[in-house]
Every structure is written in C-alpha cells, then in structure tokens.
C-alpha cells in the first residue's frame, strides 16, 4: 500500500512545535516494510499537498492532530478528496480518539485510528492490502453506510523501547531547527547565551500516573517508561545528526520517580547540555531540584491548577497547597526557572474556592504564573458531562473555536460564573504589573529589535538583553536568580497611550466592579459604558 503520512500545516508563521506522534507512526511503519512517503506541510506553501497528491497515486493518506486542529484536518480531508479521490483517508491523534463517533460523523474520513497509533496503523494497512475483513483490524473506527463501527482496542506496545525513534528525517527536522527558532531572548542567560537555539524535543514516557479529570489520556492511562539507555541513544543521535544544543523533555512524567530522575541526571551532567522538563509538585524537593540544576536543568514546568483542597480533590490531582509552596521554594533555592498554571472552573469550584486560589497565588505574583479556565477536552469526564447536560449548544463550533466560550461546569449560577470569569481576568492584570521588570534604559538597534537593561522584579539584579524582539517574546531570564522577567510592552513601545489606558482601567476601575457579586450586578450599566468606550478607542 502506497501511503502518504502528513504533518499538517498548523498555520503558525514564525514558530510551531514539532509534533512527535506522527513521526513515531511513520518510523514504525517503515520498520515494518510499508511503502511510506512523508510531508511536513509546515515547510511548504499551502498548495504543496495538492501538488504531491496529483503527481502520485497514494492508496492511503494519513494525518492526525489535537481537537483544536479540527478545522485544519477538515481542510486536509477536502484537499485529499479533491486531488486524490481514490485514496483512503486515515485520521489519528486526540482529535480521532476523544469523541470518535462525532469526529467520524462530522469529518467523514475513511478510518479513524484510536489511541496509540503505531500497531493500529500497521494492522489497518495490512488489512487494506490483503482485502481481509476490516472489522477484524483493532483500534479503528469508521462508518459502514450509516452504521458507526468501532473495533476492539489494540494492545499497548510494551516495552516501548521496541518503538523506533521518530522519523526526524522524513519530516525535515533539520530544516525545522534551521528555520523555526524559539524565543532566544528568553534563554540568553542559559547555557552560554544560546542565540542559535537548536531544541531537541524528546519524550521518555508514555501516558501518566495521574488521573486528572481535565486531562485527556490518548493511550488510556497506562504509564510506560523508556529505558535510560534508549533515551540517551536518541539524544546522542540528535546531537550528532542535528547539532541540538538544548533538550526539552516534553512528556509530563519524565520526573515522576525520584530515583529515575537522579539516575538520568548523572548522565545528563556528563552530556553537558541544558535541558528542561515537567515535574509533579509532590516530588519537588530541594535536594532533587539542586541535583537537577547541577546536571544542567534550566527550567521546570509545574501543574498547580488550584490552591483549594476541595477543588484539587475533585480534579483527582493528587497534590496539596503545601506541596505547591514547597515546590516553589525548592525551585527558587535551586535557581530553576518556574513555569506553572492555575485553572478555574472545575465542577467543585465556588466563589470561595476561587478566592482561596487567588489569595494563595498572590504570594507568587512576581512569577507570571498562568491564570485561566478549564477547557473540557473531548474524551474527558468534564466533556461528557457537558454533553450529557446539553451545555454545548454547537459541538462543531466548540471544536472550531476552542476557548472562545467558557462552559459553566460548576454549581454556580450563570451570573456568578460570569462574575468569576471577570475576577480571574482582572487578577491576570493585577499580577502582570508585579511580574514586569523595571526597564532602566532602552536603545533601538534594528527593525523591531532593542538593546535594553532591566532590573529583575525578584532579586533586583540588573540584566542586559541584546537584540530583544517584542514580536517574538516579552520575557528574559534573570542571570542571577534565573526567574522570568516580563518586559512591559508599554516600555518597548515608548508609552503606548492605548496600552496605558487599558492597564489603568483594569488596575483602578474594574476592581471596584468585582468587590462582590452584588457590586458586579450593580455596576452593569457602568461596565457597558466602559465596554463601548473601549471599542470606540480600540483599547
């Protein structure tokens, strides 16, 4: 079967994250002897896919993505139908697995690949090639006339060391590293000023030990880890082949086990390359984080989510506010850059629990922690509860505009939930003021680039940032404490009046509206007036 596997065009101009899922499937299929061609559509004009389809006769064309890529995948299917009508279309990834029947009904591909894709795709191609009963192929879904069919799950691969490394060459990883750069200004104080940052993205595990209600588990929640030997074989390959100079461990469970982390750190120290990872706060102890720092770790990403014990329990997060405090303290002591988020809107959320989290988070207002609302990903318990309660009016619009609307999954009234959303938004503006460094000098050195000196809001250290481009990023890392310094865009834009008016509005006026639900209700005429003024002044 002549098969084309496509990494879809994510429609991001300056930078996109290189996905590993599709390259993993490609390398696995090649190792099984399948006739595989590949295309990374991000590296070509939009017409490239159609040109390739017209110039070749593919039996199967496959791609995949998140549910947030629904519109991209919809356009992909239209393209294939138009330019290669004989090809079978296969879609995988979370978009396929989250709500298979709805996705299959709406997009009408020939087949969905559910869960872990390597073995399932192998079995599907073999069934199509032999002409055998497609219903005997595991892990797929499709429509047979008007009947939706979902076959039995494919067993998970074990051990996962048996899976070949991702098909980096097939999806032009070298071109990606040469042409798509992360915000190098943010990292110029890490690892010897990495202006030419070549980021090696590596995953060391599959799935997760936690069972958080807001998180979709593509592979069903069965945690599996690669051996240290296998991981470092890939890292050394990436360094030799693609000259990577930084490692991003992208899996959530790289640091789920202390002894595993310590063992990895010994070899990472010998490697001598900076790296970052995600870490659960329940194992974030000072000694461990100092060991990670000594081994080259520059940054860690935490999932705080809430500071309310009641909400954390409802989320099945398995952590406590005390552990969050300890994790922040340990990272600061170890001089590791912190990235973390709080999310609101869990079914157990109330005005009181939200205030509890806001009060707790203000201890860390200088850290520019993320504040937002829970997005009920398809396939999660939260998503299916909304479907059951008929709270998603237009499911396809929900796919096409994720985050465009916040869904009330709580016991709060709609008015109280609206008040909560406003309070979260105002809190973001409040914390922004404290997370910005103090710019003491600035000089334009090129188009959209500046040299500037800025004092760290954490430790007071004066930092110099060269060739700072506000269109790429608005942060640098302090050379002394290694925490993030946000650069206020008003400083860069030489005092944008619209920006300053907006900041004053949220700093001085809006807080009066949200003192309580009652003041929020009474302020409705004033809020409407200010909203009209904002639109008129384009604030």
Description:
With about 550 residues, the chain is an alpha/beta fold. Helices cover about 40% and strands about 20% of the residues. Helix 2 (about 50-55) packs parallel to helix 3. The radius of gyration is 25 Å and the shape is globular.
Provide the fold topology.
Elements: E1 2-7, H1 21-31, E2 35-40, H2 48-55, E3 60-64, H3 70-83, E4 88-92, H4 94-98, H5 100-107, E5 111-113, H6 117-130, E6 140-144, E7 147-150, H7 173-179, E8 199-202, E9 205-206, E10 224-225, H8 228-242, E11 246-249, H9 258-271, E12 275-278, H10 286-294, E13 297-305, H11 309-315, H12 321-334, E14 337-344, H13 351-361, E15 370-373, H14 381-388, H15 395-400, H16 414-435, E16 438-446, E17 449-455, E18 462-468, E19 475-477, E20 484-486, H17 489-492, H18 497-513, H19 517-522, H20 524-537
Helix pairs in contact: 1-6, 2-3, 9-10, 10-12, 16-18, 18-20
The proportion of residues in beta strands is 15-25%
Specify the number of helices: 20
- Ranges where pLDDT stays below 50 over 5 or more residues in a row are none
Mean pLDDT: 90
For the termini, the CA-CA separation is 56 Å
Shape: globular
Secondary-structure-based class equals: alpha/beta
The proportion of residues forming helix, as a percent range, comes to 25-40%
Largest sheet: 7 strands, mixed
């Amino acid at each position: 079967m002549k098969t084309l596997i496509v990494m879809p065009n994510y429609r991001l101009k300056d930078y996109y994250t290189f996905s590993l899922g599709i390259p993993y499937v490609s390398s696995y299929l090649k190792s099984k002897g399948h006739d595989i061609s590949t295309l990374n559509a991000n590296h070509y004009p939009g017409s490239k896919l159609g040109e390739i389809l017209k110039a070749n006769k593919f039996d199967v064309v496959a791609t995949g993505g998140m549910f947030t890529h629904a519109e991209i995948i919809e356009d992909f299917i239209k393209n294939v139908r138009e330019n290669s009508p004989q090809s079978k279309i296969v879609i995988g990834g979370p978009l396929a697995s989250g709500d298979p029947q709805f996705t299959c009904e709406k997009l009408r591909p020939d087949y969905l690949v559910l869960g872990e894709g390597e073995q399932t795709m192998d079995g599907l191609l073999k069934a199509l090639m032999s002409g055998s009963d497609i219903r005997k192929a595991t892990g797929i879904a499709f429509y047979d006339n008007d009947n939706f069919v979902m076959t039995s799950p494919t067993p998970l691969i074990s051990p996962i060391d048996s899976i070949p490394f991702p098909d980096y060459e097939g999806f032009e990883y070298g071109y990606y590293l040469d042409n798509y750069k992360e915000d190098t200004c943010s990292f110029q104080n890490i690892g010897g000023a990495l202006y030419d940052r070549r980021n090696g993205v590596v995953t060391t595990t599959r799935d997760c030990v936690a069972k958080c209600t807001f998180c979709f588990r593509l592979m069903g929640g069965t945690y599996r880890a690669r051996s240290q030997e296998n991981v470092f074989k890939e890292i050394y390959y990436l360094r030799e082949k693609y000259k990577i100079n930084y490692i991003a461990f992208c899996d959530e469970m790289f640091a789920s086990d202390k002894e595993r982390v310590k063992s990895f750190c010994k070899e990472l120290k010998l490697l001598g390359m900076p790296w970052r990872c995600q870490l659960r706060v329940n194992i974030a102890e000072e000694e461990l984080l100092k060991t990670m720092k000594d081994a080259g770790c520059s940054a860690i990403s935490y999932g705080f989510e809430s500071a309310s014990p009641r909400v954390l329990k409802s989320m099945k997060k398995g952590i406590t506010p005390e552990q969050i405090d300890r994790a922040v303290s340990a990272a600061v002591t170890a001089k590791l850059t912190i990235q973390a988020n709080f999310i609101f809107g869990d079914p157990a959320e109330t005005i009181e629990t939200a205030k509890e989290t806001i009060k707790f988070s203000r201890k860390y207002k200088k850290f520019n922690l993320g504040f937002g609302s829970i997005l009920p990903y398809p396939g999660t318990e939260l998503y299916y509860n909304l479907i059951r309660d008929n709270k998603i009016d237009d499911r396809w619009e929900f796919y096409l505009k994720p985050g465009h609307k916040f869904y009330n999954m709580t016991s709060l009234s709609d008015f109280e939930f609206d008040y909560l959303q406003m309070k979260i938004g105002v809190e973001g503006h409040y914390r922004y003021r404290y997370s910005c460094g103090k710019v003491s000098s600035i000089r334009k050195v090129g188009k959209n680039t500046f040299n500037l000196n800025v004092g760290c809001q954490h430790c007071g250290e004066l930092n110099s940032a060269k060739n700072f481009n506000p269109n790429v990023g608005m942060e640098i890392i302090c050379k002394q404490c290694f925490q993030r310094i946000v650069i206020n865009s008003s400083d860069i834009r030489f005092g944008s009046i619209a920006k300053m008016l907006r900041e004053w509005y949220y700093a001085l006026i809006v807080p009066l509206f949200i003192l309580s639900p009652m003041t929020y209700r009474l302020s409705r005429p004033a809020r409407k007036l200010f909203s009209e003024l904002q639109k008129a002044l384009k604030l």
